[in-house]
Design a protein that fits this description.
This protein has ten helices and 17 strands. The protein is α+β, with helices and mostly antiparallel strands. An eight-stranded mixed beta sheet has the order 5-4-3-6-2-1-7-8. Strands 9-10-15-12-13 form a five-stranded mixed beta sheet, sandwiched between helices. A hairpin with a 3-residue loop joins strand 9 (221-227) and strand 10. The longest helix has 21 residues, at 311-331. The termini are far apart. Bound molecules: adenosine-5'-diphosphate and magnesium ion. Residues 30, 34-35, 38, 59, 61-64, 72, 77-80, 94-100, 143 line the site of adenosine-5'-diphosphate.
Amino acid sequence: MGKITVLDEQLANQIAAGEVVERPSSVVKELVENAVDAGGSTIDITIEEGGLTLIRVVDNGSGIEDDDMKMAFFRHATSKLKTGKDLFRIASLGFRGEALPSIAAVAKVECLSSPETTGLGKRLVIEGGKITVYEDANTPQGTDIAVRDLFYNTPARLKYMKSIQTEIGHIADFVNRLALAHPGIAFTLKHNGGLLLRTLGSGERLQTFAAVYGTSAAKAMLPVEGEHPDYDLRGYISKPELTRANRNGITVVVNGRYIRSFIINQAIMQAYHTLLPINRFPLAVLEFGMHPSLLDVNVHPSKMEVRFSKEPELRQFIEECIGNVLGRQRHIPGPAPAE
Ligand code: ADP
Ligand code: MG
């Protein structure tokens, strides 16, 4: 008898959960990204106790078809990727089909969803990976998913959670950035009954920026734009007078995905060069569009790290676009450009 066996589905999900569901903000990220992928115009997020007792995300997107509802909680079940080729031109935020089964393995999940405007849909309850309820339900078009008692069956993970304040800080940071990435979607974020963010979804990025950072910061932003055969760039950067003590005020969005990129941060800093005081950083929200084949998002389970295939060109493009805007500011004193 050999010693190797294939892990059963539930155990495999729990192990995957170790990677995908690090803390409450990872759950928020996965659920909100699903809501964005579903293409709705509003996303309402309700959090209790830093996400440890409740994370609920309600969208008015495409909803989940009856037959797909149970499937969605299976490992590697996704509607976003069909063939190997798709992996090299990913347009959606999700694609691994790991989030829902991983979350359901370490929490109590209730999902209501309907693809119809008639209000006919399904309700599914799954706890610790086991489906306990699956029934017809009256629910508006879209998806309403609630995750309760996160890590209730993985006490070791629960023990490592930081304070409620720290966890909601991570959650708010993520939602703020995703809202900046999607100014056309109206977001709300509530924690223990208090409203932390409301964006209008008007499509005006500066309006979303003002909702996140305040109106006076929004007034100190300069529009930046650029075109290149491989990339385009739109967004805002702060006048050199408006700085912060860290890089957290920089939000980079590539094809609708909020990412972290050392390369891009470096190019931004290079463009400001000596305009910034030492150890001070600008505020920026930069959205890049590029052909999906020019970036690899399949680097890390969080999909937050990406690789670019034409790095030096991208770096130069950024330095030029931002440098132009800042250069104009420096050499032609006068009223700030229209906002
Ligand atoms: P992925 O996003 O990588 O496809 P998930 O486990 O996050 O994997 O979700 C599995 C599937 O469930 C998705 O591919 C999608 O078809 C469906 N789904 C999940 N959330 C939603 C939602 N809010 N609206 C519509 N469909 C959803
Ligand atoms: Mg997903």
